[in-house]
């Protein structure tokens, strides 16, 4: 058996608890986004809030990601992912329960999510991705794909779970149920299974038949920020985030606005989940075999087509299902790209801080999407202008992705332009 194959097996044999925790952690972070599409109309009916106001919940947390992800990354480099997750997990569960007390004044809705935001950053994929990237080298693409696949799980689980909670316990019972879900699923894994390597521990080089290097290689945050490559990577990913957040939050309402029943709309929205998982798995496999620039370009083209299909949607179930599936598949691929690209181009020396900066920019895109879509709808009574503009941005992002250069030829090499 080749050295790389043996190391890949060793990585999976010892690293599976990180993968399992990452799956559940990246699932639970969706508790603030995916349920909103289901409760948007009930909240509006109960309290008179507009869709733009309700969407601001996602915006608040996303701006927290923008403001705090780099600091969280620095904390990961210093204290390690386990300590960060031990704080974030219980606090997120508790504050989700507090959302039951929001309303009828809209400022109470804003206050809950402002309180939730800094702790949500502590369970973002940056935490689970940093742990996985430090442990896996040979199979890093596939490991990140599986370990961060909770995005797809969340898209599949939260809409029907939220609808069940709404019908069973009423509007006030939805978010305590979601908080309990976080506490009972992620909590035990963080306590008993999540034991990542200490910060700065290098992963072995698959081409190196000797001992692993004494220290992790890579650029510092300041060095990475001086390259144009970093900004080309993170800015196009912000476009992907903008698209994903807007679709995740508004798709249910878009479908029902155009004649789809709530029950059928939930099944269309839920299609994002399994297709995200499929995209995540295939993306991870191909990232270990094909240069990421090609994978990135495809991942931007697919949701562009999906957005165009939704802009021309008139209630046909198959069309809505196909559009949601294309977008979900792309979301799955894109979930692996940011940590994979940053670790391959800039190394693990300051990976937490660099990934944190990437997540901050990603969070900016995630923050803008739901609010822009909601405000445009409130003004124009249609989602079509937003969908058409974002489709054009996605096509442009695909062209930028094709400009990425080769991976560094040596562990201590700087990024090389194409």
Structural class comes to mainly alpha
Mean pLDDT: 85
Uncertain stretches of 5 or more adjacent residues = 205-214, 411-418
In the CATH hierarchy, the third-tier topology is known as: Growth Hormone, Chain: A
Query: How many structural domains does the protein architecture include?
Result: 1
Relative helix content: over 70%
Shape: globular
What is the CATH H-level superfamily?
A: MFS general substrate transporter like domains
Major beta sheet summary? none
**What is the C-alpha radius of gyration, as a whole number of Å?**
20 Å
Q: Would you state the CATH class?
A: Mainly Alpha
Please, could you describe this protein's structure?
With 418 residues, the chain is mainly α. The chain has one domain (3-195, 217-401): Up-down Bundle (Growth Hormone, Chain: A). Helix content is 76%, strand content 0%. The protein is globular.
Describe how the helices and strands are arranged.
Elements: H1 3-28, H2 36-47, H3 51-79, H4 81-98, H5 106-120, H6 125-135, H7 140-147, H8 150-169, H9 174-192, H10 221-225, H11 228-257, H12 262-270, H13 272-287, H14 292-311, H15 317-346, H16 351-380, H17 384-401
Helix pairs in contact: 1-6, 1-7, 1-8, 1-9, 2-11, 3-4, 3-5, 3-16, 4-5, 4-6, 4-9, 6-7, 7-13, 7-15, 8-9, 8-12, 8-13, 11-12, 11-15, 11-16, 11-17, 12-15, 13-15, 14-15, 14-17, 15-16
Q: Can you tag this structure with a few keywords?
A:
single chain, 418 residues, mainly alpha, Growth Hormone, Chain: A, 17 helices, 76% helix, globular, disordered C terminus
